[in-house]
Structures are given as structure tokens and as C-alpha cells.
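> forwarded from #structure-qc
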């Protein structure tokens, strides 16, 4: 019994660490997958691979909740005026654009498991980290005055094209926020505008992905232990708390800085991933 308690305690510590990594890397354009791969080389959960596949995605629910909490007033389409419930057309318009940006993801979502099975590896992750790192540097070096500085100025065409860029995140190591931010910058959106729109896009995409993973885990027939439930809950809660800080940081950061730092960071991380792969192969 005491041994089981120690095992549960250490699994919870691992879940806290993973929640911290998820909360930071999900919103910064530096690839949560790349960081997860590195962390998982050190942190080995005492859980089935089916559970871990589900855990890596469902832990994002905590991060989503952080967006909802921080931007509630901008996301909730109803309000009160003189004691009466009113509808906010501007918010509905924003949600319609979010839906438009989500449509391309729905088209390629059936490929998600296949991509994870065949491309969830060091080489792909490192390549995408470095590629998008270079893209950030190139895009920022050619930046001109943005034509879109407010969310309401985003057209449906802009939203759909950002959604197409978001599809590229199906490749491990790309970073969903990284792909959408690069796409938004190329379309002429300001840094703050594209960052905020990226947060909103995460709600339907990540919620849908989490639901699918839970359903697939449920029908797989693999049982879930009490420790695994605790690990999942702790990971989500920690991801939520850390995401609150990460989102605030990024929104403040982009008001005064560009994305070059993240581009350099991605290139360095990609090199580290390749080094880890080489060391692992030689071990």
C-alpha cells in the first residue's frame, strides 16, 4: 500500500511537470510536441501507451479553459442592457470567422492518427522546429505596416486562409500557434491581432481533438486506473493555471517585440532534438 502511494505521488509530480510544459508551449509558437518529446525522454509515466496518447491531447482542455476565462467578455455573445438579455452581433461575427477558420481542419482531421503514427519522431519534429523558426525570421524581416490591426477587420477570406495554415500543425513539431501566426503575419495581420485570433481558434480545434481522443480511448477497451485519472486531472489543472500566465505574457510581449526570438529559439530547440536523437541512437 505504501509503495502504491509513492508510485501515485511520483506520477502526480510528473503530471505537474507536463502541465507546466503544456501551459507554456501550447500558446507560445515554439511547439508543444517538440517539448513533450524532450520531456518524455526524462519523464516516463507508469501508464499504457493508449492512455498517454489520450493524455497528450486532453491535457489541452486546461489550456482552452484559460482562454475562455481570460477573454470571456469578448467571447460570450450575450449581455444585459436595462435588465434585458441582448445579443452582440460583433461577437457572433467573430465566432462565424472562427468557424470558417476551423473548416479546413475538419477536412484533414481523419489523418491525425496516421500522422502521429508515422511522423511523431525526432527527425520530423526537429525539421519542423527549424523550418518554422527560419520562417519567423524571414517573415519578420520583410514585415510592413499591417493592414489588419483589429479582430473585426479580419475578413472571412483571412480567416479561411489562417485555417489552412492551421492545418499544417498536423505535422508534429510545427506548432498550431506557430503555423497560424506565420500565416496571419503573411496575410498582413498585426502581431497582437493574429495572436489573439489564434487563441480563439484553439477552442473548437482543441476541444474537438480532445473529445475524439477520449472517445477512441473509451472504445479501445483499455481500462483507466485511479492514478491515471488523477494524473489527467492534475495535468489539466496545472496547464490551466500556467496558461493564464503564458497568454498574458504573449499578449504583452507582442505589443513591444516581434517574433524573432521565438524563431531563434525554435532553431536552437530543433538542433537539441537532433542531438538527443543522435545520442539516443548511439546509446
Amino acid at each position: 500500500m505504501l509503495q502504491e502511494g509513492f508510485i501515485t505521488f511520483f506520477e502526480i509530480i510528473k503530471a505537474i511537470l507536463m502541465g507546466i510544459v503544456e501551459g507554456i508551449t501550447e500558446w507560445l509558437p515554439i511547439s508543444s510536441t517538440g517539448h513533450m518529446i524532450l520531456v518524455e525522454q526524462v519523464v516516463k509515466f507508469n501508464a499504457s501507451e493508449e492512455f498517454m496518447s489520450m493524455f497528450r491531447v486532453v491535457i489541452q482542455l486546461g489550456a482552452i479553459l484559460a482562454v475562455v476565462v481570460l477573454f470571456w467578455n469578448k467571447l460570450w455573445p450575450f449581455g444585459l442592457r436595462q435588465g434585458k438579455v441582448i445579443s452582440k452581433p460583433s461577437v457572433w461575427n467573430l465566432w462565424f470567422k472562427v468557424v470558417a477558420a476551423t473548416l479546413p481542419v475538419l477536412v484533414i482531421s481523419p489523418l491525425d492518427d496516421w500522422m502521429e503514427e508515422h511522423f511523431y519522431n525526432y527527425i520530423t519534429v526537429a525539421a519542423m522546429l527549424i523550418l518554422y523558426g527560419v520562417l519567423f525570421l524571414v517573415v519578420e524581416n520583410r514585415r510592413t505596416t499591417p493592414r489588419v490591426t483589429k479582430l473585426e477587420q479580419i475578413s472571412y477570406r483571412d480567416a479561411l486562409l489562417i485555417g489552412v495554415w492551421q492545418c499544417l500543425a498536423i505535422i508534429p513539431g510545427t506548432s498550431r500557434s506557430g503555423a497560424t501566426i506565420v500565416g496571419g503575419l503573411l496575410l498582413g495581420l498585426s502581431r497582437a491581432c493574429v495572436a489573439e485570433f489564434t487563441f480563439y481558434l484553439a477552442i473548437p480545434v482543441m476541444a474537438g481533438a480532445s473529445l475524439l481522443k477520449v472517445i477512441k480511448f473509451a472504445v479501445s477497451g483499455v481500462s483507466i486506473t485511479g492514478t491515471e485519472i488523477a494524473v489527467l486531472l492534475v495535468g489539466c489543472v496545472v496547464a490551466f493555471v500556467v496558461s493564464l500566465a503564458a497568454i498574458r505574457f504573449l499578449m504583452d510581449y507582442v505589443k513591444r517585440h516581434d517574433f524573432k526570438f521565438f524563431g531563434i529559439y525554435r532553431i536552437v530547440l530543433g538542433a537539441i532534438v537532433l542531438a538527443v536523437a543522435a545520442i539516443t541512437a548511439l546509446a
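QC bot note: The mean pLDDT is 90. Residues 2-282 form one domain.
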